[in-house]
Amino acid sequence: MGPTTEEAVALLHGVPVFETLGDADLLRIAQVAVPRSFQAGDVIFREGDASDTCYVVGDGHARAIREHPDGRTITLAHFGPGDIFGELAIFDDERRSATVEALDDLRVIGITGPDFRRLLSEHPELSAKIVISLGRRLREANERLSRQSFQTVQSRVATVLAELVADAQREGARERDVLVTVTQADIAQLAGSSRESASRFLAVLERAGVIAQGRGRITVHDPEALGGYVY
């Protein structure tokens, strides 16, 4: 069951790209938005697909990945409630640059390119917001590359975990015993390390009581302790 119009408006209020819009404009978006639901492992769209729809996450989490011809995948980003993804496709005719899949039960609302472009023509300030949003992602990608060049594997993995914890806390998680939905492979890819190296360090953190590992999830008991491994 998809969100009601009122729920969709409340969700859009929390998206930085739309923060300058009033209730009347958000209501217009919500009325044309398409709600969709996915289960863990479902693909929202694949790399190479043709589509001009962007998505806003209501509940749950998703990740963007790129696939190598030899079968390996690289995790590019994680998305949670209030995040927007797929927005590049509304500006040009290029095919999807990555695959996005659900990590757990996921609810999103889709906004088509024509509806989005109409909003841009009526509200030019939205263009600046989108540029800021895309610039933030580019900056995060650059910071990740810098970490991979200059930090140790331990430092990179601890930093990735700390970022995931911060995301969860923005969604309402408490200060300690924070549950994040992520696999060892995801952490290794985000940290730019091998899975074996990431796994060894995660085992160190588990023995130290900083984290507890489960299938596709990690509970960070002591988020502050992660800072001691970042240098």
TrEMBL record:
An example Gene Ontology CC term for this record: cytosol
Recorded superkingdom: Bacteria
One GO molecular-function entry: DNA-binding transcription factor activity
InterPro entries recorded: cNMP-bd_CS, cNMP-bd_dom, cNMP-bd_dom_sf, Env_Response_Regulators, HTH_CRP, RmlC-like_jellyroll, WH-like_DNA-bd_sf, WH_DNA-bd_sf
Domain Cyclic nucleotide-binding: 17-137
Domain HTH crp-type intervals: 151-224
Keyword match Transcription regulation: yes
Keywords for the protein's UniProt record, in alphabetical order: DNA-binding, Receptor, Transcription, Transcription regulation
UniProt cross-references to Pfam families, sorted A to Z: cNMP_binding (PF00027), HTH_Crp_2 (PF13545)
PANTHER family registered for this protein in UniProt: CRP FAMILY TRANSCRIPTIONAL REGULATORY PROTEIN (PTHR24567), HTH-TYPE TRANSCRIPTIONAL REGULATOR ARCR (PTHR24567:SF74)
Name of this protein: Cyclic AMP receptor protein
Organism: Capillimicrobium parvum
Phylogenetic lineage: Bacteria, Bacillati, Actinomycetota, Thermoleophilia, Solirubrobacterales
